[in-house]
Design a protein that fits this description.
mainly alpha; about 0% strand
């Protein structure tokens, strides 16, 4: 599978292994990140090697290591742009509409594209790689939570939910339910499941008597 990575050159500049002042090649970065996505989709992070990435990208291993000091950080850079682009901001006019649109987008990305296996591989690797865990939090988790927290802020401004709502708990419930099914695979992630997750959350945070 060949997959172009939008904005790969800019992303790589911010990568964990970038060294200030060193001349960069957009073409090399693009080739490295594309090769990494292909290998991650084919076999997962644990089975992927820098040697394979270098061979597929047509670069030397030192070219990769100058940019990314670890396989995990390389994989994170290869993953993050495509995944973020699959999570566009939503503004449907209601909190329920926003939550449904956001959760459907997340589910599509992890069930209908290579992003799902890549996501699970990175989460697993981050459990015993503190550097990757920190990068995952800063470059994937927090930006997505900031983006989705805006939906709750708008709902507070519209009077749909009280200002006292703990937005972090809501986001944990929102993402956590779907991630639980993705990682454990015990039950399918269906449209009915998405609807139920959103409705359970809303039942807990909307004032009594609010319209559904």
């Amino acid at each position: 599978m060949s997959r172009d990575i939008p904005g790969a050159g800019n992303l790589a500049e911010a990568g964990g292994g970038a060294q200030r002042g060193r001349p960069r090649s957009h073409e090399a970065d693009q080739a490295i990140l594309t090769a990494t996505v292909e290998l991650l989709a084919d076999r997962g992070l644990s089975a992927m090697s820098i040697e394979e990435v270098a061979a597929r990208a047509g670069v030397g291993k030192t070219t990769i290591y100058r940019r990314w000091p670890s396989k995990g950080l390389l994989a994170l850079d290869a993953f993050v742009t495509s995944f973020r682009e699959a999570q566009p901001p939503n503004d449907t006019g209601t909190l329920r509409g926003d939550l449904l649109a956001a959760l459907h987008a997340w589910v599509r990305a992890v069930t209908q594209t290579p992003m799902g296996p890549m996501l699970t591989s990175l989460i697993a690797e981050a459990q015993h790689d503190p550097e990757l865990r920190g990068a995952w939090r800063d470059r994937v988790l927090e930006p997505l939570r900031v983006q989705h927290r805006v939906m709750l802020d708008r709902a507070i401004e519209r009077g749909e939910i009280p200002a006292s709502v703990d937005r972090d708990v809501v986001l944990d419930l929102f993402f956590g339910a779907a991630e639980h099914r993705l990682l454990l695979g015990h039950l399918p992630i269906t449209d009915a499941f998405i609807d139920a997750v959103v409705d359970v959350i809303l039942a807990g945070i909307q004032p009594a008597g609010s319209p559904p």
